[in-house]
Design goal:
Blueprint: E1 4-7, E2 10-13, H1 24-28, E3 31-39, E4 42-43, H2 46-59, H3 68-81, E5 87-94, E6 111-117, H4 124-129, E7 131-135, H5 156-167, E8 173-176, E9 182-184, E10 189-194, E11 197-200, H6 211-222, E12 227-229, H7 234-238, E13 242-247, E14 251-258, E15 261-262, H8 270-283, E16 288-289
Length: 291
């Protein structure tokens, strides 16, 4: 059965799902989006994803044509129409069709798209054996230029970093800010474990405040582990006892090698393994019911 895609009030088959070539999301990356997961017939932390979507839209002065409760209903209906219990959901709000100029005032009606489908980001072996990453030359965009806390459609910064990683055989990379501090991966937040302490970069440095990151912080607190929000360097990564990445699609991914330095014992650490288990248990019981 062909997937049904929601576009501006209608569900249409995937082969018929189209937006205008004059849409500013297509022309200029002018819009915002969310990647959301559904597990076991529940949409994982949907309220938090919607809150971030509307905050991103407000930051770029984009008026979302649906109220949050209406958007929630669209997401759930799209999953039901596609008979999905476990899925990846892409929710997009673009500026809409205008002319070939930059002026967003020429776009009278924003465009809303909801896609629900499957996703597999990493091989299952990665979660058992761990991942190797490298630092790439492409720096994260400065918060003074485009704050990465806005989850915009302009992901070229991340894509360029992803290309640099793939060219050298790495599925994920570490991105630095202009000052040289480690911020995150191309689609994941980063955590370090050192002598029982868990450290992650603070939001003010310009990271994307990940929904999975927030869930992991809460799970760590339930495990009796406090999280410190501190700028980290590559040296901190190299000498950490454990390193892991978090993200909606990635979940919790252990990192066992960074820039050819072995992390800890070179295998996923105890805390990372326990955290991944706790996270997966949490996904099965938490979320907005679909059916």
């Amino acid at each position: 059965m062909e997937r049904l895609i929601y576009i501006d009030g209608r569900h249409v088959p995937k082969s018929e799902a189209k937006v205008s070539v004059f849409d500013h999301g297509f022309l200029y990356g002018d819009g915002v989006f969310e990647g959301i997961r559904a597990y076991n017939s529940r949409v994982f932390h949907l309220d938090e994803h919607l809150e971030r979507l509307y905050q991103s839209a407000k930051a770029i002065m984009l008026e979302v044509p649906l109220e949050p409760k209406e958007m929630e209903a669209v997401v759930l209906e799209t999953l039901r129409l596609n008979n999905l219990k476990d899925a990846y959901i892409r929710l997009i709000v673009s500026r809409g069709a205008g002319d070939l100029g930059l002026d967003p005032r020429k776009c009278p009606k924003p465009c809303v798209v909801v896609i629900a489908d499957d996703i597999v980001l990493y091989d299952p072996q990665v979660y058992q054996k761990g991942m190797a990453v490298i630092t790439v030359p492409t720096r994260r965009v400065s918060v003074d230029s485009l704050n990465p806390r806005v989850k915009s459609l302009n992901y070229l910064n991340n894509i360029l970093a992803k290309i640099e990683g793939y060219l050298q055989g790495y599925p994920e990379v570490l991105m630095l800010n202009p000052e040289g501090y480690v911020l995150e991966g191309t689609g994941d937040n980063i955590f370090l474990v050192k002598r029982g302490r868990v450290i992650t970069p603070p939001a003010y440095q310009g990271i994307l405040e990940g929904i999975t990151r927030a869930v992991v912080i809460d799970l760590l607190k339930e495990m009796g582990v406090e999280v410190e929000f501190t700028p980290i360097t590559r040296h901190d990564v190299y000498v950490a006892d454990e390193v892991f990445l978090t993200g909606t699609a990635a979940e919790v991914v252990p990192v066992v090698n960074a820039d050819s330095r072995v992390i800890g014992e070179g295998v996923p650490g105890d805390l990372t393994r326990r955290l991944l288990e706790a996270f997966r248990d949490h996904t099965q019981v938490s979320g907005t019911p679909i059916y």
